[in-house]
Design a protein that fits this description.
Blueprint (H helix, E strand, L loop, with lengths): L10 H6 L6 E11 L2 E6 L2 E7 L10 E7 L2 E7 L28 E6 L3 E6 L8 E6 L4 E7 L3 E3 L4 E11 L9 E9 L14 E6 L9 E8 L4 E12 L3 E11 L2
Parallel strand pairs: 3-5
Antiparallel strand pairs: 1-2, 1-4, 2-3, 4-5, 6-9, 7-8, 8-16, 9-15, 10-15, 11-14, 11-16, 12-13, 12-15
């Protein structure tokens, strides 16, 4: 899910700008079922109509229009590439609730965090998310993916949903980021990297979900070897961050 963000307005503000003319955007399909499609765009998630006979998949980049407050999906964009994490549990649906996400790995860079799969009715994709946070104190951790083969100069677009899960006593100060990790082979784990970590996009003081915040950006491989995409979570006290629908696409 590359989810280009044209500006930081929400869906209602986007609609209010339209006037009598249609406006077009590129968003990311969150979910698709008969007579029900949900799109993420500009940090907001909303339902949209689609053209009869259209076949869409969660994670597709879609071309949408808005006129007089109505959103319509015109189709999925071709040439943007498949999700390279499609077989590596990108939405954490392949793990039982309460367990660590399979095909993902946790590395503590400061303090101690835990990662577990959680069922939630507001998950952007499916019914489960990965929850990362502390049980007290402060900590920063990488929850990072299975490896993707890369060559120097390869370019990728990456994205994920993240949402704060705060207790009444918490303040909304959790920080998140997408980080590229680089390895010489497919078996090395963090911190046995072959190049410096690459921070792709970061958000401070992530808001209580819903809504979930869309993180997206681009990264260029500095090495021949393997990339693992890390979901960096910095929390204190009982703060947690919910992650979902992680997408990596090759663009060059």
């Amino acid at each position: 899910m590359t989810t280009p963000l044209y500006h930081s307005t929400n869906a209602e503000e986007l609609s209010a700008e339209d006037g009598p003319f249609a406006r077009f955007r590129v968003g990311t399909l969150v979910s698709f079922a008969t007579n029900q499609a949900v799109v993420s765009l500009g940090g907001s998630t909303f339902p949209a109509a689609y053209i009869r006979g259209t076949n869409l998949l969660a994670g597709d980049l879609v071309y949408v229009s808005n006129q007089s407050g109505s959103w319509v999906i015109h189709g999925a964009l071709a040439g943007v590439g498949t999700n390279l994490l499609a077989n590596f549990n990108p939405s954490f649906e392949d793990s039982a609730p309460g367990t660590e996400p399979v095909l993902w790995f946790l590395a503590n860079t400061a303090g101690t965090s835990t990662a577990a799969v959680v069922q939630t009715g507001d998950a952007p994709d499916g019914s489960q998310v990965a929850s990362v946070g502390t049980a007290g104190g402060g900590a920063t951790a990488y929850l990072y993916s299975s490896p993707i083969a890369v060559s120097t100069g390869d370019m990728f677009t990456v994205s994920a949903f993240a949402g704060g899960e705060y207790q009444p006593s918490d303040t909304a100060t959790a920080d998140v980021a997408l980080v590229g990790l680089w390895f010489a082979n497919a078996t090395n784990l963090y911190p046995t990297t072959s190049s410096a970590d690459t921070v792709i996009v970061s958000v401070n003081d992530i808001v209580q979900k819903p809504p979930y915040t869309t993180l997206s950006g681009s990264v260029t491989a500095p090495v021949n070897g393997f990339m693992r995409l890390a979901l960096r979570t910095a929390t204190v006290g009982t703060q947690q961050v919910y992650w979902d629908q992680v997408i990596v696409r090759r663009t060059l």
